[in-house]
Amino acid sequence: MTTLTTWTRRDPFAQLDGLDALVRRSFGPMTVRTPVRPTGFVPAAEVLRDGDDAVVRLELPGVDVERDVTVELDRGRLVVSGERRDERAGQRGRSLGEVRYGRFTRAFTLPEHVTGESLTATYDAGVLSVRVAGAHVGREPQRVSISVGQPADVRSDAQPEGEQVDQA
């Protein structure tokens, strides 16, 4: 006899839906319902350094970037927003669905000197790459030396900030 085991992916926040329903029933329509957990699509992202440039890569498989994605520079932030649409919505025959759909927004803070002309975006094989030209210009890290022992600039009678010593 063959036994078929079904694996179920459990959502640790699913039990909170019941609590949310209890609160809504208790307090009536005066409460505003906010989502308990994210249910939509959130693209994975990585930021790479390529010389003086930064490259932001987002995984967007199955997204029509020409129709559904915008890339903007808004108040010093690179903002990528869009939607992953379920083109097969309403079709029967799906018994398991782990692919998420919906609207998304990802934002990345950029250096102050970056302008819109510094940005170029390309899409290939399900990955959106946004190059930020000159993001690292003049931004080399400065190494700070570490001395072992008591710091030279701390006096032995110094008090921590905010504390006062009684002179009685």
Task: Explain what the structure shows.
By secondary structure, the protein is mainly β. It has helices at 14-27, 65-68, and strands at 45-50, 53-59, 69-74, 77-84, 102-109, 119-124, 127-132. A four-stranded antiparallel sheet has the order 1-2-7-6, with no helix packed on it. A three-stranded antiparallel sheet has the order 3-4-5. The longest helix has 14 residues, at 14-27. The chain is flat, with a radius of gyration of 26 Å. The N and C termini lie far apart (90 Å).
Can you describe this structure in just a few lines?
This protein has 168 residues and is mainly beta. The protein has helices spanning 14-27, 65-68; strands spanning 45-50, 53-59, 69-74, 77-84, 102-109, 119-124, 127-132.
